[in-house]
Design goal:
The complex is a heterodimer of chains A (255) and B (524).
Chain A: H1 2-40, E1 56-57, H2 64-70, H3 82-100, H4 114-126, H5 130-143, H6 148-160, H7 164-177, H8 184-194, H9 230-243, E2 250-251
Helix pairs in contact in A: 4-5, 4-6, 5-6, 6-7, 6-8, 7-8
Chain B: E1 2-5, E2 9-12, H1 13-30, H2 35-62, H3 69-96, H4 101-125, H5 134-145, E3 153-157, E4 160-164, H6 166-179, H7 186-199, E5 215-218, E6 226-227, E7 236-239, H8 241-256, H9 272-290, E8 300-310, H10 312-320, H11 332-341, H12 349-353, E9 359-366, E10 370-375, E11 388-393, E12 396-407, E13 414-420, E14 426-432, E15 441-446, E16 457-461, H13 462-466, E17 470-475, E18 478-491, E19 494-506
Antiparallel strand pairs in B: 1-2, 3-4, 5-6, 5-7, 8-9, 8-11, 9-10, 10-13, 11-12, 12-13, 14-15, 14-17, 15-16, 16-19, 17-18, 18-19
Helix pairs in contact in B: 1-2, 1-3, 2-3, 2-4, 3-4, 4-6, 4-7, 6-7, 7-9, 8-9
The chains are: A mainly alpha (255), B alpha+beta (524).
Chain lengths: 255, 524
C-alpha cells in the first residue's frame, strides 16, 4: 500500500508539475502575443518630453456613438471587429441624417420612403436651399440605388439648378441602371436643353424656353409639385384666420 | 491643492504653477539665448503644453455638464498660458528674423498658432475685445517678403502631425477670431478648428479678389477678416471659395460614409449634432462669399428698457399671461429692483413659492431683422447663442434667436445680438387628429412677414416636433388639419417648424379638393 501511495504521490506530483508548466507556457505565450501586438502598434506620432504626469483622466459618461467609437476597431488588427466598425459607421450616418434632416428622417432607412424624401427635397428647393435638397436626394439614392423616382427627382432638380455636370452624371447612372426606363425620353429632352453637346442625349434640337419649375405641361414634375393652388390658398386662409384672432390669450380648439 | 474638473479629471494647482514657471523661464531665456536655442526650447515647451492642455481641454470640452468655478479657473489659466506663449513667440521672432531665418520661421509659426489658441479660448471665457492684428499682419508680410509663406513644415498640433504653412496658420488665427465673436459655443469652435487644421494644406490665399465677396485681410491694417474686394490701394489677401467648398464637401461626404473628419482628436468625440451646426455655419459663410457684397442692414440707435424671456417655456408663459409693461426709460436702480421683484402671482405653482427673476435689458439698436440688447442687472447670465428669446417692447412680444453673446461695454453684463423671426407670436390650441383626449396642446404660431402664409411657422420643442402628428385646429367657423413638416430654424431645445395644411374646411362651405396626384399638399 505504501508503494502504491508513493506511486500515486509521484503521479500526482508529475501531473501537478506538468499542469504548472502548462500554465507558465500559456502565460509566456500570452505575454509574447501581447508584446508583439504592442510592438506592432504604430509609434506615437508626437514625441513628448513631458516631465509632468499630466492631468489624471477618468472615463467620461459618453454618448452611444462615442462609446462605440471607444471600442477597438478593425484598424487595431482585430478582424472580427469589422462588423462593429460597420455598425459604428451606420450609427454615425444615422445620427448625421437625423440631425441634418430633422423632421424628415430619423435614420437612413427612413429615406427609403421616396415620396416623403422627394417632397422634402422639393421644399428645400422652394426655400432656395438647393444644395440641401441635392444632398438629401443623394443620401436617398445611396440608401436605395434602384429607386428610380428618387433619381428622376434629382435629375429634375439638377436641371432646375442648371447643374449640367450633375445632370449628366445622374443621367448616365440612370441609363446604366435601367436602359429601358420609360422616363429616358424626358431625361434626354431635358439633357439636350441643359447640355446640348453631350452625345448621350442625342443631337441638339434647338433652344427651348420651357424651363419652368413645377407642374407645367412641358416639365416631367418628378419633384411632385402641386398641380394646383389649393395648398397656397389653405396657407393664406390659415394665416388670415390666426392673425385675425386677438393678439393675447389662446385661440383655436380641436375639431 | 487639487482642482476637480467635472467629471473627468483632476489637476493639481502645483502642476499649473510649474508650467507657469516654465513659461516664465522661457521668456527670460528668450532674451539671452541664440534664436536656434530659443526655438528648440520653444518646441520642447510646446510639446509638453500640447499634451498637458490637451487632456485638460478634453475634460472641459467633452463634458456635457455646466462648468464649475474650478473649470472656469482652468480655462482662464489655459487662455493665459496661450497668450503668454504667443507673446514670447512674437518677441523672440522679432529678434530672430535678422539673425536666424529658420528659427524665425518656426517662432513665427508658433506665434500664429498660439494666437489662434487664444482666440479659441476667448469663446470659453466669453471674452470679447477689440482686436488689433497689426503685429500679426507684420509677421505675415515678413513671411511673404522672404518667400516662405507657403513653405510646409510638420508641426505636432492637437495630438497629430500636421503639415502647416505660415499662411495657413495665419488664416487659422484670423478665422478663429472671426468665429469666436460670440456665435459659436466651445464645442463648435473646437470642431471648426479641427476642420481648419485639416484644411491648412489646401488653404492658399490669392492677391486678386475672386468673384463674389470672399473673405479678405488687409495686410497694412489692424483689422481682421472682412468680406468683399478692397476699395483703394494696398496689399490684401483673399481666401478663394473653391478650396473651402471642396473641403466642406469632403466633410459632408465623410458623414455620408459614416465617418467623422478628422477621425481622431477631440472633435471626433463630440456629438454629431454639434458638427452639423458647424456645417450649417460654414455653408452660410460659403453662400455669403458667393454673393455680391451687400451693405449691412441699416441700424438705428434706440435706448429703451425691454423685458426679455429666454426659452420656449418663459415665452409661452408671457404670451399666455402678459406681465405689466415696463417704462421705456428708467434708472439702473429701478431696473435692479424690478429684476429682484420676481414674477410672483403668475400661474405656475412653483411661482407661488419661489419668485422667478425677471429679465430686463436695454435695447441699444435695432434693424429690420435684428436687435442688440445689453443685459442689465445680470439677469441674462445663462443666455447662449442658439437660445430662443422673446423681447417685450411697447407691449408687443417679438421673437428671435440669440445670434451672439459678448461681454457688455461695462464688463459686468452681456450684450446679446438677436436675430428676429417674424411677427408677434400667437398662441394656438391644437389637438391630435382623430380626437385624442384632453384639451390638446398650445403651440406658438409665428407669422411670416407676408400674408401668403408661406413663411409661417410654429415654435415647438424638439420632442414635440419629432412626434410628427397631424394636428387639428378650429379657428371660428374654419377647421384646419396641419402637419409640422420641416425645420426652418433651430437652436437649443427648440425648432421653428414650417408646416403644411393637409385639410381645411369651413362650416357651410365645401372643402377645396387638392388636384395633386397622390394627395400631396404643398407647404404653407
Amino acid at each position: 500500500m505504501q508503494g502504491g501511495g508513493a506511486v500515486s504521490f509521484a503521479t500526482g506530483f508529475v501531473v501537478t508539475f506538468l499542469a504548472f508548466l502548462g500554465v507558465v507556457a500559456a502565460g509566456l505565450a500570452i505575454a509574447r502575443a501581447l508584446k508583439s501586438r504592442a510592438l506592432a502598434r504604430p509609434p506615437a506620432p508626437i514625441p513628448s518630453a513631458a516631465p509632468h504626469p499630466g492631468p489624471r483622466a477618468r472615463p467620461l459618461p459618453d454618448a452611444p456613438v462615442e462609446r462605440a467609437r471607444a471600442a477597438p476597431s478593425s484598424a487595431a488588427g482585430f478582424g472580427k471587429d469589422e462588423p462593429m466598425e460597420a455598425a459604428l459607421r451606420s450609427k454615425i450616418r444615422d445620427r448625421y441624417i437625423a440631425a441634418r434632416f430633422a423632421g424628415i428622417a430619423k435614420c437612413s432607412g427612413d429615406l427609403r420612403n421616396f415620396e416623403r424624401t422627394i417632397k422634402a427635397a422639393r421644399l428645400f428647393f422652394e426655400e432656395d436651399r438647393g444644395e440641401r435638397a441635392l444632398e438629401l436626394l443623394a443620401l436617398a439614392i445611396e440608401e436605395d440605388p434602384a429607386c428610380e423616382p428618387t433619381r428622376l427627382a434629382r435629375l429634375e432638380l439638377a436641371f432646375l439648378l442648371h447643374d449640367a455636370a450633375l445632370f449628366g452624371e445622374g443621367a448616365r447612372e440612370l441609363r446604366q441602371l435601367n436602359p429601358q426606363s420609360p422616363a429616358w425620353g424626358e431625361v434626354a429632352r431635358l439633357g439636350r436643353i441643359l447640355a446640348p453637346d453631350v452625345a448621350l442625349f442625342g443631337p441638339p434640337q434647338g433652344p427651348s424656353v420651357h424651363e419652368h419649375y413645377g407642374a407645367w405641361p412641358e416639365m416631367p414634375n418628378w419633384l411632385h409639385a402641386s398641380w394646383d393652388l389649393t395648398a397656397e390658398v389653405r396657407a393664406t386662409d390659415f394665416h388670415r384666420a390666426v392673425m385675425a384672432s386677438p393678439p393675447t390669450g389662446v385661440v383655436g380648439a380641436g375639431h | 491643492m487639487e482642482l476637480e474638473l467635472l467629471p473627468s479629471c483632476t489637476v493639481s494647482s502645483d502642476e499649473l504653477a510649474l508650467f507657469a514657471r516654465r513659461v516664465a523661464v522661457l521668456r527670460d531665456a528668450a532674451g539671452v539665448l541664440n534664436p536656434a536655442q530659443v526655438a528648440a526650447q520653444f518646441m520642447e515647451l510646446h510639446l509638453d503644453l500640447e499634451r498637458f492642455v490637451g487632456e485638460l481641454q478634453r475634460s472641459l470640452v467633452v463634458s456635457s455638464l455646466d462648468w464649475t468655478d474650478e473649470d472656469r479657473a482652468v480655462c482662464r489659466w489655459i487662455h493665459d498660458m496661450n497668450s503668454r506663449v504667443a507673446q514670447i513667440g512674437r518677441s523672440a521672432m522679432e529678434r530672430a528674423r535678422t539673425e536666424d531665418e529658420q528659427a524665425a520661421f518656426l517662432l513665427c509659426a508658433f506665434t500664429f498658432y498660439y494666437t489662434g489658441e487664444c482666440e479659441k479660448w476667448d469663446v470659453a471665457l466669453r471674452a470679447h475685445h477689440a482686436h488689433d492684428f497689426a503685429a500679426l499682419h507684420a509677421l505675415m508680410r515678413w513671411a511673404i517678403s522672404i518667400g516662405r509663406a507657403l513653405d510646409h513644415t510638420p508641426l505636432a498640433l492637437h495630438g497629430r502631425s500636421i503639415s502647416c504653412t505660415l499662411e495657413g496658420l495665419y488664416f487659422r488665427a484670423l478665422l478663429l477670431a472671426r468665429f469666436s465673436a460670440g456665435n459659436l459655443n466651445v464645442k463648435q469652435i473646437e470642431i471648426l478648428d479641427a476642420w481648419i487644421l485639416t484644411w491648412l494644406p489646401v488653404v492658399a490665399a490669392v492677391g486678386e479678389a475672386p468673384p463674389g465677396s470672399a473673405l479678405r485681410v488687409d495686410l497694412d491694417s489692424s483689422a481682421g477678416l472682412q468680406r468683399g474686394p478692397r476699395h483703394g490701394p494696398g496689399p490684401s489677401l483673399y481666401l478663394p471659395q473653391e478650396p473651402i467648398e471642396r473641403a466642406y464637401r469632403s466633410i459632408v461626404r465623410a458623414f455620408h460614409e459614416g465617418r467623422m473628419l478628422p477621425t481622431r482628436g477631440l472633435s471626433s468625440e463630440l456629438r454629431v449634432e454639434e458638427h452639423v451646426a458647424v456645417l450649417d455655419l460654414v455653408r452660410k459663410g460659403l453662400d455669403e462669399s458667393k454673393e455680391v457684397p451687400r451693405p449691412r442692414a441699416a441700424r438705428r440707435e434706440v435706448s429703451v428698457i425691454v423685458e426679455i424671456f429666454i426659452g420656449v417655456a418663459e415665452i409661452e408663459r408671457e404670451a399666455r399671461n402678459p406681465s405689466a409693461h415696463l417704462p421705456g426709460a428708467m434708472a439702473l436702480r429701478s431696473v435692479k429692483a424690478i429684476t429682484q421683484s420676481g414674477t410672483h402671482g403668475r400661474e405656475r405653482p412653483i411661482e407661488e413659492i419661489y419668485d422667478q427673476q425677471r429679465r430686463v435689458a436695454q435695447m441699444l439698436d435695432r434693424s429690420e431683422r435684428g436687435m442688440r440688447l445689453e443685459d442689465l442687472a445680470d439677469s441674462c447670465a445663462g443666455a447662449v447663442p442658439g437660445d430662443v428669446i422673446g423681447v417685450k417692447m411697447d407691449g408687443a412680444l417679438h421673437l428671435g434667436s440669440v445670434a451672439r453673446v459678448t461681454p457688455s461695454s461695462t464688463g459686468d453684463g452681456l450684450t446679446l445680438g438677436v436675430s428676429l423671426f417674424g411677427l408677434a407670436p400667437r398662441l394656438v390650441r391644437v389637438v391630435p387628429a382623430g380626437g385624442g383626449s384632453g384639451e390638446g396642446v398650445v403651440l406658438m404660431f409665428v407669422g411670416g412677414d407676408d400674408a401668403s402664409g408661406r413663411h409661417d411657422g410654429f415654435l415647438v420643442g424638439e420632442r414635440f416636433f419629432s412626434e410628427d402628428k397631424v394636428l387639428d385646429v378650429a379657428l371660428g367657423p374654419e377647421r384646419f388639419s396641419l402637419r409640422l413638416n420641416r425645420v426652418r430654424d433651430r437652436g437649443r431645445g427648440w425648432i421653428l417648424a414650417g408646416f403644411e395644411i393637409v385639410e381645411s374646411e369651413q362650416a357651410g362651405r365645401k372643402p377645396p379638393q387638392a388636384a395633386s396626384p397622390g394627395g400631396i399638399a404643398s407647404p404653407s
